[in-house]
Amino acid sequence: MANSKRDLFLKRRLRVRNKLRKVNAGRPRLSVHRSNKNISVQLIDDVNGVTLASASSLEKELGIVGKNNVEAAAKVGQAIAERARAAGVEAAYFDRGGFLFHGKVKALAEAAREGGLKL
């Protein structure tokens, strides 16, 4: 019985998230979603079920609307790091979802680290 690509993606996403829940020590989760056209990230407090901060390549103030590349992902990473510090968050767990840690996802994580967020 063959699984579809979507089923495999969902299994991978749940596997990553469940591992994060086991080691979560009250730190928020930095959750990434990547589509074919955009990338977005949310800082989520799972204890209270609240989104603390978010950033997306769709935001006009970042100046990257319509660009889907590594540089755009890095700008989103810098933006989430700034917004996390403004929300009083210094450390978070990186939830890559079902996406592989390379390319845009890696660039976003590295830019968030450079912005002062401990992942």
Automatic annotation (TrEMBL):
Alphabetical keyword list: Ribonucleoprotein, Ribosomal protein, RNA-binding, rRNA-binding
Top-level taxon of origin: Bacteria
GO molecular function: 5S rRNA binding; structural constituent of ribosome
GO BP terms: translation
SUPFAM superfamilies referenced in this protein's UniProt entry, alphabetically: Translational machinery components
GO CC terms of this entry: cytosolic large ribosomal subunit
InterPro entries with a match to the protein in the record: Ribosomal_L18, Ribosomal_uL18_bac-type, Ribosomal_uL18_bac/plant/anim
Oligomer status and interactors: Part of the 50S ribosomal subunit; part of the 5S rRNA/L5/L18/L25 subcomplex. Contacts the 5S and 23S rRNAs.
Similarity-based family: Belongs to the universal ribosomal protein uL18 family.
Protein role: This is one of the proteins that bind and probably mediate the attachment of the 5S RNA into the large ribosomal subunit, where it forms part of the central protuberance.
PANTHER family: 39S RIBOSOMAL PROTEIN L18, MITOCHONDRIAL (PTHR12899), LARGE RIBOSOMAL SUBUNIT PROTEIN UL18M (PTHR12899:SF3)
Protein name: Large ribosomal subunit protein uL18
Organism phylogeny: Bacteria, Pseudomonadati, Pseudomonadota, Alphaproteobacteria, Rhodobacterales
